[in-house]
Amino acid sequence: MRILQYTQYLYLIFFVVFLYEAFSKYQAGESPWLVLLLAGMSLFMFFFRRRFAQKMQQRNKTS
Fold first, then answer.
1. Looking at per-residue confidence, does 54 or 16 come out higher?
2. Are 6 and 51 in contact (CB under 8 A)?
3. Contact residues for 59 (Cβ-Cβ < 8 A; gap 6+)
4. For the chain, N or C: smaller number of CB within 10 Å?
5. By CB neighbour count within 10 A (0-12 exposed, 13-18 middle, 19+ buried), where does 45 fall?
6. How far is it, in rounded angstroms, from Cα 1 to Cα 11?
7. Shortest CA distance to 8 belongs to which of 57, 53, 55, 61?
8. Range scoring the smallest mean pLDDT among 2-6, 12-16, 33-37, 45-49
9. Using a CB cutoff of 8 Å and minimum separation of 24, what contacts does 19-22 make?
10. Is 16 within 8 Å of 40 (Cβ atoms)?
11. How confident is the model at residue 1 (pLDDT cuts 50, 70, 90)?
């Protein structure tokens, strides 16, 4: 279960990659909205997974 602590940071990596892709598309004159949506979703998932991991850690401490 130790790997689950590190997978949340994978979402941050995706966020940075998607932001870079959106910036590249914007500079090329293309529409970056779909890539920005994916970036927003990956940022949301990072915070969601982080909060969930903290809840599980807290529950394991009290048990």
1. 16
2. no
3. none
4. C
5. middle
6. 18
7. 53
8. 2-6
9. none
10. no
11. low
